[in-house]
């Protein structure tokens, strides 16, 4: 890696740490400030924070890599995600922002569920916290794998401080994220997400255009001709796609309703800011997804026309193009965009995991009368503990970014998706139904993956998990409708 590239990356790291220090001085005096930024996020910050924490390294590694290998048919994942995001902003965002305040000013999703269903408060908070920590350890590991792949591609055959390039990337990524997340809390995470979202979308616009229209690019026509020589169906939306494959791709969008690190942004945006945040967030997402699609397809065409280029892992096509086509200083900027995608998601996930461990476990079972300062400090310790688990999971260099994200995304989507939607919209839902849906959704996803049914059937695990969770909530709620279910919603 050349000196200008390292300078760009160093400047990026310094900027992230500076934002963390700013947030530390502004919003870490109490739990509401540390965990939700005082519920006063600007709509633009909330929107890009939700988008950046959502897309992660998957946007620059996993999705382009899938398109690079299989062609345009993989774009259905992005289409399903965009449709899910639209529904999430319309259905969940305004209701969650209002009802988390109405139900005891809840600071976490488990706390909101406990306040909504007081008869099952302890069971909901404890079960939710366990599911959040388990799946976020896996999800955070996916981001650290991305950091490892970046360094492995840039420091080939070089040991860094006694570590392989891959592990050095995993550890450095984790340390920088830990630094600004532990110090600055939610505000630091949200502000860094905003900056990272801007960097990401610039990179996603610039790179496909340079690949297509830069020296030797040849434009869209040349790209199309090259890709069709690989496979006549490479640019087909349905080439070789079965109904089950199509369904598994588009149902990624169901996961949005149950992603704690995304929907917590709805809780934090300032009052009345949801409509503006929705418009900004969906515009950013549309541009970002089209850019990722362009990187995968244009990158494959470029590599095919340049046989001297070697790529062992399709998920590193973004890194290969950044190192091959750009001035070293610009390369540093593009690699910083990749780190931005990775870090924005890891930081959000670590903070949500920390909030569950502190508010839904430590305060509930260990120190009910803990001071606000103590809770903030315990939260910082919990951030560190979850990050250690993520590092251990990510230590396997064979881990696939897309596979890890897919597993965690399905787990959250099935466990929390039906639960969040129905708790916000169905006044007859009961606490017993909420617990049943939470446990059933998570259990079905875990069993589906553990038994290999996701591979043998081709059915993405979120489909059976989401359906089973929804049915469990409906059936158990109807059977226990006479039980205390909390105050009915005002919809």
UniProtKB/TrEMBL annotation:
NCBIfam families referenced in this protein's UniProt entry, alphabetically: Na_Pro_sym, sss
Q: What is the lineage of its organism?
A: Bacteria, Pseudomonadati, Pseudomonadota, Alphaproteobacteria, Sphingomonadales
**What the protein does?**
Catalyzes the sodium-dependent uptake of extracellular L-proline.
A Gene Ontology biological process in which this protein takes part is: proline transport
Q: Which UniProt keywords apply?
A: Amino-acid transport, Cell inner membrane, Cell membrane, Ion transport, Membrane, Sodium, Sodium transport, Symport, Transmembrane, Transmembrane helix, Transport
* Example GO molecular function: L-proline transmembrane transporter activity
**Pfam families attached here?**
SSF (PF00474)
Keyword DNA repair tagged: no
Query: What PANTHER family does its record include?
Result: SODIUM/PROLINE SYMPORTER-RELATED, SODIUM_PROLINE SYMPORTER
Q: Which InterPro entries match?
A: Na/Glc_symporter_sf, Na/Pro_symporter, Na/solute_symporter, Na/solute_symporter_CS, Sodium:Solute_Symporter
Looking at the UniProt entry, the stretches that span the membrane are 6-24, 75-93, 126-151, 163-187, 194-214, 234-258, 279-298, 318-342, 375-394, 406-425, 432-450, 462-481
Q: Which family does it belong to?
A: Belongs to the sodium:solute symporter (SSF) (TC 2.A.21) family.
PROSITE patterns per record: NA_SOLUT_SYMP_2 (PS00457), NA_SOLUT_SYMP_3 (PS50283)
Q: Which reaction does it catalyse?
A: L-proline(in) + Na(+)(in) = L-proline(out) + Na(+)(out)
Q: Does the keyword Lipoprotein apply?
A: no
What's the name of the protein? Sodium/proline symporter
Coiled-coil-forming residues are none
Specify the protein's topology with respect to the membrane: Multi-pass membrane protein
Chief site of localization: membrane
């Amino acid at each position: 890696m050349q000196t200008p590239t390292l300078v760009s990356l160093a400047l990026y790291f310094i900027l992230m740490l500076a934002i963390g220090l700013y947030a530390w001085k502004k919003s870490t005096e109490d739990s509401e400030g540390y965990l939700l930024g005082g519920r006063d996020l600007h709509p633009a910050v909330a929107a890009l924070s939700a988008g950046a924490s959502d897309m992660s390294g998957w946007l620059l590694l996993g999705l382009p890599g899938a398109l690079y290998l299989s062609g345009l048919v993989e774009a259905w994942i992005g289409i399903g995600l965009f449709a899910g995001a639209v529904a999430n902003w319309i259905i969940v965002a305004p209701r969650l922002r209002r009802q988390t305040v109405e139900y005891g000013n809840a600071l976490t999703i488990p706390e909101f569920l406990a306040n909504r269903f007081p008869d099952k408060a302890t069971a909901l908070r404890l079960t939710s916290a366990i599911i959040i920590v388990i799946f976020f350890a896996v999800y955070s590991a996916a981001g650290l794998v991305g950091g490892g792949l970046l360094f492995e591609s840039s420091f080939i055959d070089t040991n860094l401080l006694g570590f392989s390039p891959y592990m050095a990337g995993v550890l450095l990524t984790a340390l920088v994220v830990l630094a600004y997340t532990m110090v600055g809390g939610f505000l630091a995470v949200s502000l860094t997400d905003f900056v990272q979202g801007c960097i990401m979308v610039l990179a996603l616009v610039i790179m496909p255009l340079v690949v297509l229209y830069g020296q030797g690019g040849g434009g869209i026509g040349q790209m199309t001709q090259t890709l069709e020589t690989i496979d006549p169906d490479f640019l087909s939306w349905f080439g070789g796609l079965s109904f089950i494959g199509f369904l598994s791709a588009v149902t990624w969008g169901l996961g949005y309703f149950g992603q704690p690190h995304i929907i917590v942004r709805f809780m934090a945006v300032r009052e009345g800011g949801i409509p503006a945040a929705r418009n900004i967030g969906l515009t950013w997402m549309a541009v970002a997804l089209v850019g990722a699609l362009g990187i995968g397809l244009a990158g494959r065409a470029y590599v095919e026309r340049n046989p001297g280029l070697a790529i062992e892992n399709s998920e590193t096509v973004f890194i290969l193009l950044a190192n091959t086509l750009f001035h070293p200083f610009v390369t540093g900027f593009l690699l910083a965009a990749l780190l931005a995608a990775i870090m924005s998601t890891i930081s959000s996930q670590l903070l949500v995991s920390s909030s569950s461990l502190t508010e839904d476990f430590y305060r509930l079972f260990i120190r009910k009368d803990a001071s606000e300062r103590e809770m903030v400090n315990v939260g910082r310790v919990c951030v560190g503990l979850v990050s250690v688990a993520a590092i251990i999971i990510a230590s396997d260099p064979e881990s696939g970014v897309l596979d890890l994200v897919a597993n965690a995304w399905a787990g959250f989507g099935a466990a929390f998706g039906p639960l969040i939607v129905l708790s916000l919209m169905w006044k007859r839902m009961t606490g017993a139904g909420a617990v049943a849906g939470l446990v059933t959704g998570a259990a079905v996803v875990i069993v589906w993956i553990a038994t290999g049914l996701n591979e043998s059937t081709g059915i993405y695990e979120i489909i059976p998990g989401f359906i089973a969770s929804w049915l469990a909530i409906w059936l158990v709620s109807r059977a226990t409708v006479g039980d205390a279910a909390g105050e009915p919603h005002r919809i």
